[in-house]
Specification:
About 35% of the residues lie in helices and about 15% in strands. It is built from ten helices and seven strands. α1 runs antiparallel to α6 and α2 runs parallel beside α4. The chain folds into three domains: about 140 residues, Death Domain, Fas, CATH 1.10.533.10; about 90 residues, Phosphorylase Kinase, domain 1; about 50 residues, no CATH class. The termini are far apart. Belongs to the protein kinase superfamily. TKL Ser/Thr protein kinase family. Pelle subfamily. One of its GO terms (molecular function) is ATP binding.
Length: about 325
């Protein structure tokens, strides 16, 4: 792929919301791709793909480029630019993502090239900036509105209009203390890539899913599955899908925090584990309907459907 070195903005030396993405200066494009490629989840290239990709197959295609060490963001923008999209279109998407860092990169580039145009709102960049604070988490630069600053990379099941979790009262230290540093006495379940611990935190009970990292050869594959589950939980919300209470990637421990379901799993209830009463047919039908609604919601999300090969009930 080839991007114009100067393009239509070369003559005037200025960018505007009407500048085509094909005319984005290579240096600026490199900065934009670098920031988006280094971020995970909703603020990374996957968050961009969620809004711009036409199908899940397109996302899988981009994943192959990323696995080859190429820029996922560059591939997305290249495809989108072929639809005659402009910098203004990109700024609108970035605003929906809440990605103020990249917005400022583009705006500051335009301001440096031609400060006089910034006084003309119709030709320059729109006034869409708010005060932001920059934090460095896990060697990645993240941007957070000062009114919505998160601490210790923690989130709770409260969402803004974009569906992004806002803040959390739970800290990673709470998880350490609640599980006695992940002691086996608090282990309540094990899966292929997760261990699940029960923890009492701030007068509440939580299930802590911790990513297994025993086999180094499978670490990359496990990490991708961890990120996949995290991204789905951050981006998609439904009454029949258990909300994420917090997530952490600290001290070589990667974990997801959920509210603890005291009634156990559907399997336990069907088998009457612990001498529990059998479920009535009315409850069983409601469970089936709720599960079907959650699956239908995930299969019909835009722009990419989410297919889950393992459903916990």
């Amino acid at each position: 792929m080839a991007w114009a070195a100067a393009g239509n903005c070369g003559a005037s030396g200025a960018l505007s919301v009407h500048t085509l993405l094909f005319d984005l200066p290579p240096a600026l494009l490199g900065q934009v791709c670098s920031v988006l490629d280094s971020c995970d989840g909703a603020l990374g290239w996957r968050g961009l793909a969620e809004r711009l990709a036409s199908s899940w197959l397109d996302v899988r295609h981009i994943e192959k480029y990323v696995d080859q060490g190429k820029s996922g963001t560059r591939e997305i923008l290249w495809s989108w630019a072929q639809k005659n999209k402009t910098i203004g279109d990109l700024l609108q998407i970035l605003q929906e993502m809440g990605h103020h860092r990249v917005i400022h990169l583009i705006a500051n580039h335009g301001a440096i090239l031609n400060p006089s145009e910034q006084s003309h709102q119709g030709d320059g960049f729109p006034n869409i900036f708010s005060k932001v604070e920059y934090m460095c988490i896990d060697n990645h630069l993240r941007t957070l509105e000062t009114a919505k600053v998160t601490v210790d990379n923690v989130l709770i099941p409260e969402h803004n209009k974009k569906g992004i979790l806002l803040k959390s009262s739970i800290s990673f230290q709470n998880v350490i203390e609640g599980t006695k540093n992940f002691h086996k006495d608090f282990l309540i379940g094990e899966g292929e890539i997760f261990e699940v611990y029960r923890a009492e935190i701030q007068n509440g009970t939580y299930a802590i899913k911790v990513l297994r990292q025993e086999k180094k050869m499978q670490c990359k594959k496990q990490w991708k599955r961890f990120l996949s589950e995290l991204e789905v939980l951050l981006l998609f919300h439904h009454p029949n899908i258990l909300e994420l209470a917090a997530y952490f990637t600290e001290s070589e421990k990667f974990c997801l925090v959920y509210p603890y379901m005291r009634n156990g799993s559907l399997f336990d209830r069907l088998q009457c584990v612990g001498n529990t009463d059998p479920l009535s047919w009315h409850i069983r039908i409601n469970v089936l309907i709720g599960t079907a609604r959650a699956v239908q919601y995930l299969h019909n999300t835009d722009p990419c459907s989410v297919v889950c090969g393992s459903i916990s009930r």
